[in-house]
Amino acid sequence: MVQSVRVAALIGAPTDVGAADRGASMGPEALRVAGLQEALAGRGLEVLDRGNLNGPGNPWRPAVDGYRHLHEVVHWNRQVHDAVYAQLQASRLPILLGGDHCLGIGSISAAARHCREKNRTLRVLWLDAHTDFNTRELSPSGNLHGMSVACLCGFGPRELVELSGQVPAIEPRAVRQIGIRSVDPAEKRFVHEQGLNVFDMRYIDEMGMRRAMRGALSGMDERTHLHVSFDVDFLDPVIAPGVGTTVPGGPTYREAQLCMEMIADTGQLCSLDIMELNPAFDMHNRTAMLAVDLVESLFGKSTLMRPVDADGGIGAARGE
């Protein structure tokens, strides 16, 4: 198990150029107002706030050749890639504050580049209501936040798929998607063709979050770099209304806490995205405060300190 990184770097990316709705550009400040830096410091981390990246505004234009705002999305993702990569090179844990989920292309490309250089294995946990595996041929909207994982796997515009310096940046087998419950029909076929590992809400309903997470985290070793890309619409909108693309039937508060706690138990979280928080749809910053609460659990907060058994379960503490 790798030693925990004790210095976290906050990187704000205030843009919604890849999204279907405006407002995610306000996400970084909402997370700061909700006390993210103080919460992380309370978990024993040294926290450096690197401020916000700069990039073009949202032109709010229709898609061109199947992509909306491609030039702007590329600019923002280059900024994100360089900022995240610099923090990884400095042995810090970058925390990207989005912004819409197209920015995951830049952050995960940076993690992939870092892992290649350090001879480490990248595992990506994609916590989301959507697979984000569309292409311009499949997408009904052209919004690039719905194409992020496809771009990372080599299916997308050259400017985005080449960000990490290698195409594809990652193989589908590196990704575990959790909480999925909204997939376009053609996108669903493409997901199956590419063999993505998806623990959708039916799986979670039938088997439970614990079994889903044990599957998602299986196969990691001390050389694994774990990247968590947390789209806030992963959560059920009853508890997290502050997103632009709400989909009913997501994880409950306790299911989400268990997900985060089991990630924390690995001790291998090395980089993090917090995406798609949209204060324009929120109530009194409620969703931002919930996101901060869950991020605390990612860094070790739990309701009860308990021993962990050899295969990552909690049975020993429960007499199972």
Keywords:
320 residues, alpha/beta, Arginase, Chain A, 15% strand, disordered N terminus, disordered C terminus, arginase activity, manganese
CATH fold node name = Arginase, Chain A
In the CATH classification, which architecture applies? 3-Layer(aba) Sandwich
Number of helices: 12
Estimate the mean pLDDT confidence.
94
Structural class: alpha/beta
Give the helix proportion (percent range): 25-40%
Please state the CA-atom Rg, rounded to the nearest Å: 18 Å
Number of domains: 1
Q: Order of strands in the sheet with the most strands?
A: 2-1-3-8-7-4-5-6
* Helix and strand pattern: EHHEHEHEHHEHEHHEHEHH
CATH superfamily: Ureohydrolase domain
What is the makeup of the main sheet?
8 strands, parallel
- What is the 3D shape? globular
Overview of this protein structure:
The protein is built from twelve helices and eight strands. The longest helix is centred in the N-terminal third of the chain and has 20 residues, at 70-89. An eight-stranded parallel beta sheet has the order 2-1-3-8-7-4-5-6, with helices on both faces. The chain has helices at 27-33, 36-42, 70-89, 104-118, 148-152, 158-161, 185-194, 201-207, 209-217, 253-266, 286-298, 315-318; strands at residues 7-13, 46-52, 93-98, 121-127, 175-178, 197-199, 224-231, 269-275. The protein has a single domain, classed as 3-Layer(aba) Sandwich (Arginase, Chain A), CATH 3.40.800. The chain is of the alpha/beta class and 320 residues long. Helix 10 (253-266) links the parallel strand 7 and strand 8 (269-275). Helix 3 (70-89) packs parallel to helix 4, helix 8 packs across helix 9 (209-217) and helix 9 (209-217) packs parallel to helix 10. Its cofactor is Mn(2+). InterPro entries: Arginase, Ureohydrolase, Ureohydrolase_dom_sf, Ureohydrolase_Mn_BS. Mn(2+) binds at residues 101, 128, 130, 132, 231, 233.
